[in-house]
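chain below, 478 aa
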Amino acid sequence: MVFASLLFVFLFLAANILSQLLIRSVKGKNIAMLVFSLIFYSWSGPRYLILLVGMVFICWVGALVIQGMRREDRRRKTALAVTIALCLVILGIFKYTGFLVATFSGLFRADWPIPHIVLPIGISFYTFQLISYVVDVYRRQVRAQSSYWMLLLYASLFHQCIAGPIVRYQDIQRDIVTRKPTLAEISTGVTRFTVGLAKKAILANGCAAIADQFFDQGADALAQVPALGILLAAFAFTLQIYLDFSAYSDMAIGMGLMCGFHYKENFNYPYISQSISEFWRRWHISLGSFFRDYVYIPLGGNRVPMVLQLRNLFVVWFLTGLWHGASWNFVLWGLFFGVLIGIERFVLKGALSGLPAPVKAVGVFLLVMFSWILFKFTDFTLMATAVKGLFGLNGNGLTSVDVALAFKNNVFFLIFCTIASTPVGRGLRNLLKNLSLRSRGLFWLNGVVEIAIPVFLLLLAAAALAGDSYNPFLYFRF
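prediction:
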């Protein structure tokens, strides 16, 4: 079951929200939420529910053991290491076994059979959530949860369990036991959810169709795509990946607000960034902050000599790439950003600060757009073909009738998607709300913002979903 489906929106989510409104006690709400979350998770494969339940049990026991020890007890660190190691081993077995076998088979020129292990949905996300919980207990930033079922609720909340954001226990521990959503929060949550649903069903899926028109083909056919066709596809995929990823976060944050959970922002209009470092402060914020707080800073962060800082950057960006998928293209993609940030920090050292903001923003956007070609193709032959084709090195020419037609047919749609990737829409919404508050004659504008627009977006998205039965989010594969 995915968020962008009529079954989820009009049956599952409606029933869940109704249960949260009708049940008065927080304990009853938690029981209902846990039941709904476990049903949602097991929808795609009940057998993997055992894995989630088991990993939560490991971290529940580990955190209680750690909390029961004195700070100076050396066994605390051992308990932390064992708990984290068990989680990472489980993640590694299911996500990276085939990748490692294939890699070493190639290195040793052996013909080893590659095991085909199905990746449990959402395992990368809930593994990191549980690790952050155990580490925070070790650091005395939170108290260990005494109830296993409450910890299972935290890890399995269907709003964010499958594809993020990576929610830390310390951010919602109060919500779990004392939440009481207000009418304003519910209204904001509904609006946020419908915006995300429309963003996914209409904009992201539309951009995917444009990108796939040129990218989704074999190496020989891809080599014939003109340079402007590769550029158009890369631009469409750049918009798609942001609209898709941020749509899921919008929907998760919105559903959380409807039920009294306050999840932090996960995307903050990254395509307006004026540096690569700023881009990663705005892109997938929960993942970036995880690696910062649990990997980069413990390694020494910026407080160590330059050589060690470079090592820390390499480790973080290698892991960031590998987290996204068991394929070397993701590692290459991660290291690409690591190199760019290293150049910004140690080579340029603010030398570009004097450039006009639009010039810096365009430069960053072009680098990011190029990076998504590395991200898109797990097959290095296809990746190399696309990269060469972007610069006309396949003998592929500049443009063609098909490229010109695709551009003319989609130019206004792409312009709208570009605007939707900036704060313009949010600014317009805030402007309308402020006008409604300042002028009695414009009070009806608040009704437009809070009621009419969400209803319109819901109907528009429902119409799009009715004609398309396949709407997976890209982050589902992680």
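The chain has two domains: 6-180, 185-470. The chain has a mean pLDDT of 90.
thats it, cya
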